[in-house]
Amino acid sequence: MNEKIICPHCKKEDIKKDGKRKTENRGLIQRYKCRECSHRFVLDDGFYRMRNSSQKITCAIDLFYRGVSTRKVQEHFKAFYPHNSDHSTILRWIRKYAKMISKFTDNLKIRSIEEIQVDEMEYKTKKRKSWFIDCIDTETRFMVSSSYVYSRGNGELKEVIKKAKDKTSQIKVVTTDGFPAYTNVVKKLFGYNKHLKKFNVEHNQVNARQGEGFNYKIERLHNSIRERTKVFREFKRLESAKALMKGYEIFYNFIRVHQAIGKCPYELATDLKFKDKNKWLELIRLSSSKIEESPNNSN
Q: How many domains, the chain?
């Protein structure tokens, strides 16, 4: 066995193969037995107790973020899978794995960033105004942090920019639009040099209303997000919206090839290497292995 397998019961590594478990839709799954405590188990590869195959689930997630609705994904599966899945089930897959993968991707080491652009997009959740706030590295186009919230006050803006600041200590320029709240947030997060009478980072505010142009790189990203989310009309619940938008962040950073740089942003911003062409599948497996390694994991 190439990978180290640990018994989930006694945490020992003296493991042997012990037959296979037959499932209706996922085929044969390898079962293991611990020589120390005789506990029998199957590996949790991110799809434990799922009734559908990993290929089908990741295909549904990929189709959704490429612009296909959950109902159309359901119709598509009718032609290829005898055991069909309801559109509500597909939506649950998307939310579940977006949350799971984000626990892994949010902790990836990011290469040094000199300039970040921060902006926000307005949405509606239950007919209430809400905001998607995001931050990108202008060189690699990597979306460093994001958040979906009901308000774009100082606290919400600070949360997004602080996440970016914590991932790298090399930020020299923070570019925003003319929204006044950014000034206080940047000043408090990065500090203000009273002797030199300037911020410790350059705060570049671009006010489009005064003819100063646009922050084109992050606006280009927002156009891509709008292209996918415009058909939603409004989100039903805040938590669901957070998961769906986090999934788009993963899709943008790791799956979709950026036309301006000719590759995915993660290739320039991180040291992560994929072995599988199905990146959704590999991200889920990587996320699952990290969860198993966590000391707080009760399983």
A: 3
